[in-house]
Amino acid sequence: MQAKLSWFGDILHVELIGLVQFLEIDSFRQKAMRHFSQNKLILDGAKLQFVGSTGVNEFTDVITELTLKNPWGVGALNFSSEFQKVFQVKIKGPLRLFPDKHVAIRFFEFQDKVLETQRAREAQGVAFGGRDKILSDPLKVENAEPEEVASVTPDSVPDLIKS
């Protein structure tokens, strides 16, 4: 198995290529933990091959480790529907399945904007996502007007990032 790496800003796209062999899983685990666990990560399984069920459990164990150690969560795309079912049953951490690379990239970019907004509101003493505005007197709370809530679709993410 090989990995082709592409960077999109600070987002790492890893295209997994070739046959997953049981004997290579430990090497893959070590390299994945060393190089992928601290990056915004998208795993692409379009060119990944398995022979029967050989290596599937061990491979999903590596993905579970990545999802649990990666502060951003892990994105996955182009895995077969059967493999996605295995992911849903076995993987314990935050693994997000995306229809394509562009939606995954937009998700991670949008995630950054949400975190920036949250930090800015916390710095101003405003509870994130709530209706209460905290004033200088900690015992006095004044209700703020509810904010408009927009539905988010993959197409609307770039518009939300600009605003």
CATH topology: Transcription Regulator spoIIAA
Strand content: 15-25%
Low confidence ranges: 130-154, 156-163
Bulk shape: elongated
Please give the largest β-sheet: 5 strands, mixed
The count of β-strands is: 7
Query: What structural category characterises the helix and strand content?
Result: alpha/beta
Which whole number gives the mean pLDDT?
Answer: 78
Based on the coordinates given, report the CATH architecture: 2-Layer Sandwich
Q: Please tell me how large the radius of gyration is.
A: 20 Å
Q: Order of strands across the widest beta sheet?
A: 1-2-3-4-5
Q: Please give the domain count.
A: 1
Number of helices: 5
**N-to-C SSE string, H for helix and E for strand:** EEHEHEHEHEEH
Helix content: 25-40%
The CATH class label is Alpha Beta
User: How would you name the CATH homologous superfamily?
Assistant: STAS domain
Euclidean distance between termini CA atoms: 42 Å
Give a verbal description of the structure:
This protein is α/β, with parallel strands linked by helices and 163 residues long. The protein has a single domain, classed as STAS domain (Transcription Regulator spoIIAA, 2-Layer Sandwich), CATH 3.30.750. Helices cover 39% and strands 24% of the residues. It has five helices and seven strands; from the N terminus they run ββαβαβαβαββα. It has helices spanning 25-35, 56-69, 81-90, 101-123, 157-162; strands at residues 2-8, 11-19, 40-49, 74-77, 95-97, 132-134, 141-143. The protein has a five-stranded mixed β-sheet with strand order 1-2-3-4-5, sandwiched between helices. The chain has a two-stranded antiparallel ribbon with strand order 6-7. The chain is elongated, with a radius of gyration of 20 Å. Mean pLDDT is 78; it is low at 130-154 and 156-163.
